[in-house]
Amino acid sequence: MTSPGTIFALATPQGRSGVAVVRLSGPSAGAVLQKITDGRLPPGRKVVLRSVRDPETGQVLDSALILWFPAPASFTGEDVAELHLHGGRAVIAAVMQVLSRQPGLRLAEPGEFTRRAFLAGKMDLTSVEGLADLIDAETEAQRRQALRQMGGALSALYEGWRARLLRVLAHAEAIIDFPDEDLPEETNAHLRAEVTALLEEIDAHLADSRRGERLREGIRVAIIGPANAGKSSLLNWLAGRDAAIVSATAGTTRDVIEVHLDLGGYPVLLADTAGLRETADALEEEGIRRARRWAREADYRILLLDGAVYDERQTAEFTSQENPSLVVVNKSDLMMSWPTSATVVGEALSVSVKSGQGMAGFLARLEQEVARLAAPGEAPALTRIRHRMALESARESLMRFLQAPSPDLAAEDLRLAVREIGRITGRVDVEDLLDVIFRDFCLGK
Ligand SMILES: Nc1nc2c(c(=O)[nH]1)N(C=O)[C@@H](CNc1ccc(C(=O)N[C@@H](CCC(=O)O)C(=O)O)cc1)CN2
Ligand SMILES: Nc1nc2c(ncn2[C@@H]2O[C@H](COP(=O)(O)OP(=O)(O)OP(=O)(O)O)[C@@H](O)[C@H]2O)c(=O)[nH]1
Ligand SMILES: [Mg+2]
């Protein structure tokens, strides 16, 4: 997919801005830079102010800050030039026009600068993914996790495991190659003990309830409950805007309505759903099916009940069937008294979306629960299904190693495990993976 040559792209967003940055990377970057400025190559890694010209007409296009990074000390490892232009549309268009006319220069593919950094050995694949996540990070917790991964925290963990397995493999091969030599009696037992210890670490890493993935993707929270309970009102309150239609008519919401929230630094995908009730209306029934499906896959379910028509039997039914994470009884402003006997009510929160009663406590509780679901632990978290699948496959190979009927097969199982872990960081053949990983990058990155 990538071809060599010199690439260029606007690294800052399209459209008007104070400053716009255009980056060039590749063997012709220096020559082109000289050609569109005054012929001198600036000193490496020092900012200089220069006129940028159209070399054909000599016309000055902008007065810009120029940065020159000679290879290999650059982001991509190649010669890199940066033009920090005034961010007007016409300035950007004129400079991009001139660059696209230069022989040997072409517009970069999305992610191609980073891809070159990977191919030059500047970053491994987990750092590349961390960089992509950093650019996509919308909340504090996401930013921290991404920066940590970009800095090599996951890479260090996986490379550490791989190095330990390589040592085990070297010993296992020695046992095969020199069966008659006087190898220490307990070597085999040592290897098995090391693999067992590694398996425990991998298992602990995998058994993180998807915290890292949740933090990356957003924690899915569903609001479910009977019709007219105030579910849409609650979503609007949390979103701070009128995202969903509210009305006194039961059965108003049909489609699932999703909003993105930042709750205490954690990203939440909150869904308002159709009220659950018996209905003869086919459309409403489809809405209820969608509500149940979304809720089933959610990380957290808020069951919102209608305090104005509070019914213990119905409450017990909802609680047993919908698997709620939290029960909230709304419209406390209309309730004469808090229902007493039902057990579920003892643990439920009483609120009024309308009057605001109990809402601060509810929000604090929700923030706490969301943080519990996605807060990072001491160790770096697995953030992608790609890592999980490779580790599960490595884990299977290691389990087979422990049961292997012959030293040859045991060594082969180790080789497979080493390879799987190597694929996570990109240490071994990952050609097939690269297009997938770089596909979602933005242009100019
Ligand atoms: N103007 C500008 N700002 C930017 C970037 C950029 O490319 N240009 N970055 C782009 O993402 C990020 C910074 N990342 C960078 C990472 C490495 C190198 C670099 O020159 N690395 C050399 C030298 C290392 C050193 O001096 O310590 C190297 O790795 O050899 C540059 C930027 C964020 N800000
Ligand atoms: N008194 C009172 N009325 C409320 C409260 N919260 C919501 N309502 C009203 O209850 C009615 C239903 O609110 P919605 O938010 O549309 O309820 P819903 O659960 O989304 O209803 P469906 O989409 O039909 O299932 C509206 O008239 C709201 O104004 C509250 O705390 N107190
Ligand atoms: Mg509704």
UniProtKB/TrEMBL annotation:
NCBIfam families: mnmE_trmE_thdF, PRK05291.1-3, small_GTP
Location(s) in or outside the cell: Cytoplasm
Keywords: Cytoplasm, GTP-binding, Hydrolase, Magnesium, Metal-binding, Nucleotide-binding, Potassium, tRNA processing
Enzyme Commission (EC) number: 3.6.-.-
Residues the entry annotates as binding GTP: 228-233, 247-253, 272-275
Entry-linked Pfam families: MMR_HSR1 (PF01926), MnmE_helical (PF12631), TrmE_N (PF10396)
Keyword Mitochondrion found: no
GO biological process, one term: tRNA methylation
An example Gene Ontology CC term for this record: cytoplasm
Statement: the UniProt record of this protein carries the keyword tRNA processing: yes
Protein family: Belongs to the TRAFAC class TrmE-Era-EngA-EngB-Septin-like GTPase superfamily. TrmE GTPase family.
Cofactors that this protein relies on: K(+)
Any one GO molecular function term: GTP binding
Domain of life the protein comes from: Bacteria
Binding residue positions for (6S)-5-formyl-5,6,7,8-tetrahydrofolate: 23, 82, 122, 445
Known partners and oligomeric status: Homodimer. Heterotetramer of two MnmE and two MnmG subunits.
EC supergroup of this enzyme: hydrolase
Designated name of the protein: tRNA modification GTPase MnmE
Residues the record lists as binding Mg(2+): 232, 253
Domain TrmE-type G: 218-371
